[in-house]
């Protein structure tokens, strides 16, 4: 039993069925004049069919027990969760604090959290990177990076 | 004569100071990306997308194309010196390139990789120049059924050549189509799968998806493990290959260029496949196949020639039909569209400056690359020494700024992070990202052409079989889809996939 294929195929099957349902909801139209949901319905049906195929094949596959455990055994959860949490928090704070005020702490965190650097390296690296990218993207390329409530950046 | 006239127009455009600058930035960043493992040409093109907004369409495409073929050059450096390919198309170069470096012949290996890339790159541009005009003329006769079936064929070939499971690749393509169709219906302007989010009315952006799948997910995977890059400490001297090296490599260069160019044209083909096949061909035709894997210079020349020639070939379907054959070309299609240019059979007539300017810039870019890669090799070696713990926050920073600058929308940052997680899980569960991205770009075009075809034929599906080209494309696509069920074809496909993975 190939457990990771069973888990993933169930997810895709649910998504495929959802897409089919959404397609019907959008109206299929006729073959003469296909509607907005026509393509969604058929692509959703193909997704469901393929997931079912992967599911059945995984169920018949022997000798792969404990695969899910192996898949996650070497994962350093903390590092990934730290990085993702920092990114989500950054996205939330980005327009409120502005580019400079939100990006400097993010970079210091990334420099320190995953494989800790010296504070001087982290702070200097973060400030230099942010100022350089600000000069390139905002001043030179004219990108409209947010200034935040303090109007900095 | 016409060709020379057009080429002179092209050089006039390419030699404009602005365009020269963008070409240089493109090839420079391309080489840098090729040297640095962990971020491929697709990610780099997304990062530099914002740079192209202020530029003319010519400059934008010249720069993005430069990143693509520049990455092919740069990728060989890490393969030879560190035994880690900078990008997938340089995987095979590791086999003999690294062995040559261990034997104290890093110089000739790097030199042959650069010269081979230059020769093949130039030959493929000549091929592109000669083949594109007649193909454009031919493509003018295509209607919606031909376009629809050609896109189906393109996706099928990509799926057929996927590293692992074909049903999984097909599933990813289907998911890509669904994502590509989110937003307003192009025919009746009805919102689809937007769930009331105004930000989704225009659809999901290509850049956040690509950055998430190829940039953020790669970072998440890399921080899980300690990346050790041991640079082979050797003095790099004598970059010019000897007369014997040239004699040994001349056949490999010619065969690699030809193979690469024609495989590059094929939808779903491209640089990675051509480098593998050209290496296998060289080993087969060699009188001393036992030398391969132990430092044979042909083993460096052939794949490097092939992967560079493939870049030129890949432009043909995009520029003449408007159909991107691979993910990199899908990114370029996005750049064309943002600048209001529709690539396809009419592009050569409507935008000769752009079409020929891009081609001419590739000649210039190839010369720039030769200069960047040979005398400045020491600089690239230094870049290799930057540790990943310093590199990954910077990669994330560029992804964040890049995504935001394209649309000025924080929503796209969220999309990128979510697709970073999706990409990470896809790699864990052995699903590929390439079919998803290509299908995402082709999805709306496919739907449009399918619906137009059905309206044309009043709902009769036989329209796809009554026209010779669409019938041939569909039959070939069907054959490829069922081929894994034919025992010897299935074995052959698995062999190719295994070779690529190993």
How are the elements arranged and paired?
The complex is a heterodimer of chains A (153) and B (502).
Chain A: H1 3-25, H2 38-60, H3 67-73, H4 77-97, H5 99-113, H6 119-140
Helix pairs in contact in A: 1-2, 4-5, 5-6
Chain B: H1 2-14, H2 17-35, H3 41-48, H4 57-82, H5 93-102, H6 106-139, H7 144-160, H8 166-181, E1 183-184, E2 191-192, H9 206-222, H10 243-265, H11 271-285, H12 298-321, H13 327-338, H14 347-350, H15 352-373, H16 377-384, H17 388-407, H18 410-428, H19 434-456, H20 463-466, H21 468-482, H22 487-501
Antiparallel strand pairs in B: 1-2
Helix pairs in contact in B: 1-15, 2-4, 2-15, 3-4, 3-9, 3-13, 3-17, 4-5, 4-6, 4-12, 4-13, 4-15, 5-6, 5-12, 6-10, 6-12, 6-15, 7-8, 7-19, 7-21, 8-19, 9-17, 9-18, 10-11, 10-12, 11-12, 17-18
Task: Sum this structure up briefly.
The complex is a heterodimer of chains A (153) and B (502). In chain A, 73% of the residues lie in helices and 0% in strands.
Task: Outline the structure in words.
The complex is a heterodimer of chains A (153) and B (502). By secondary structure, chain A is mainly α. Chain A has two domains: 3-73; 77-140, no CATH class. Chain A is built from six helices and no strands. The longest helix of chain A has 23 residues, at 3-25. In chain B, a hairpin with a 6-residue loop joins strand 1 and strand 2. The mean pLDDT of chain B is 82. Chain B has 502 residues and is an all-alpha fold. Chain B has one domain. In chain B, helix 2 (17-35) runs parallel beside helix 4 and helix 8 (166-181) packs across helix 19 (434-456). Chain B has a two-stranded antiparallel ribbon with strand order 1-2. Chain B has helices at residues 2-14, 17-35, 41-48, 57-82, 93-102, 106-139, 144-160, 166-181, 206-222, 243-265, 271-285, 298-321, 327-338, 347-350, 352-373, 377-384, 388-407, 410-428, 434-456, 463-466, 468-482, 487-501; strands spanning 183-184, 191-192. The interface between A and B is large, with 62 and 60 residues.
């Amino acid at each position: 039993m190939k457990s990771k294929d069973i888990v993933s195929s169930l997810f895709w099957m649910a998504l495929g069925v959802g897409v089919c349902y959404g397609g019907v909801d959008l109206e299929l139209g006729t073959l003469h004049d296909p509607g907005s949901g026509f393509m969604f319905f058929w692509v959703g049906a193909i997704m469901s069919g393929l997931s079912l195929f992967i599911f059945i094949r995984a169920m018949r596959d022997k000798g792969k027990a404990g695969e899910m455990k192996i898949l996650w055994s070497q994962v350093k959860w903390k590092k990934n969760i730290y990085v993702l949490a920092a990114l989500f928090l950054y996205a939330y704070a980005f327009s409120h604090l502005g580019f400079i005020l939100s990006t400097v702490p993010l970079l210091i965190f990334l420099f320190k959290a995953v494989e800790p650097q010296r504070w001087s390296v982290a702070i200097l690296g973060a400030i230099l990177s942010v100022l350089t990218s600000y000069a390139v993207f905002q001043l030179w390329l004219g990108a409209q990076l947010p200034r935040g409530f303090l109007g900095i950046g | 004569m016409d060709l020379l006239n057009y080429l002179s127009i092209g050089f006039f455009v390419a030699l404009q100071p602005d365009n020269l600058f963008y070409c240089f930035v493109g090839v420079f960043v391309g080489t840098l990306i090729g040297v640095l493992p962990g971020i491929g040409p697709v990610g780099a093109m997304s990062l530099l997308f914002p740079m192209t907004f202020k530029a003319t369409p010519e400059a934008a495409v010249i720069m993005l194309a430069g990143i693509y073929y520049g990455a092919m050059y740069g990728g060989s450096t890490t393969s030879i010196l560190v035994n880690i390919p900078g990008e997938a198309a340089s995987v095979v170069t590791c086999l003999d390139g690294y062995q040559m470096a261990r034997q104290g012949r890093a110089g000739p290996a790097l030199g042959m990789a650069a010269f081979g890339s230059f020769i093949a790159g130039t030959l493929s541009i000549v091929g592109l120049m000669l083949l594109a005009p007649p193909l454009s003329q031919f493509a003018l006769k295509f209607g919606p059924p031909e376009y629809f079936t050609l896109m189906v064929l393109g996706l099928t070939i990509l799926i057929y050549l996927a590293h692992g499971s074909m049903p999984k690749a097909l599933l990813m393509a289907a998911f890509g189509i669904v994502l590509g169709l989110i937003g307003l219906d192009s025919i009746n302007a009805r919102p689809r799968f937007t769930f009331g989010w105004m930000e989704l009315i225009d659809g999901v952006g290509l850049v956040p998806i690509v950055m998430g799948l190829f940039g953020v997910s790669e970072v998440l995977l890399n921080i899980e493990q300690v990346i050790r890059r041991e640079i082979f400490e050797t003095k790099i001297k004598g970059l010019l290959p000897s007369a014997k090296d040239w004699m040994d490599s001349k056949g490999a260069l010619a065969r690699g260029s030809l193979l690469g160019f024609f495989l590059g044209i094929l939808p779903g083909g491209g640089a990675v496949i051509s480098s593998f096949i050209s290496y296998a061909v060289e080993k087969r035709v060699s009188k001393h196949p036992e030398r391969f894997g132990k430092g044979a210079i042909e083993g460096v020349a052939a794949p490097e020639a092939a992967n560079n020639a493939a870049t030129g070939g890949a432009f043909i379907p995009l520029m003449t039909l408007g159909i991107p054959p691979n993910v990199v070309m899908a990114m370029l299609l996005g750049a064309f569209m943002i600048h209001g240019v529709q690539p396809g059979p009419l592009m050569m007539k409507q935008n000769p400056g752009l079409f020929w300017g891009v081609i001419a810039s590739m000649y210039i870019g190839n010369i720039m690359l030769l200069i960047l890669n040979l005398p400045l090799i020491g600089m690239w070696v230094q870049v290799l020494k930057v540790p990943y713990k310093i590199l990954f926050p910077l990669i994330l920073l560029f992804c964040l700024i890049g995504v935001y600058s394209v649309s000025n929308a924080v929503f796209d940052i969220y999309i990128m992070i979510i697709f970073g997680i999706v990409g990470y899980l896809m790699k864990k569960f052995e699903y590929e990202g390439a079919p998803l991205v290509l299908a995402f770009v082709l999805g709306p075009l496919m739907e449009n052409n399918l619906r137009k075809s059905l309206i044309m034929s009043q709902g009769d599906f036989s329209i796809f079989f009554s026209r010779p080209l669409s019938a041939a494309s569909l039959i070939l696509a069907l054959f490829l889809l069922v081929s894994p069920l034919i025992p010897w074809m299935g074995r052959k496909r698995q062999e190719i996939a295994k070779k690529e993975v190993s």
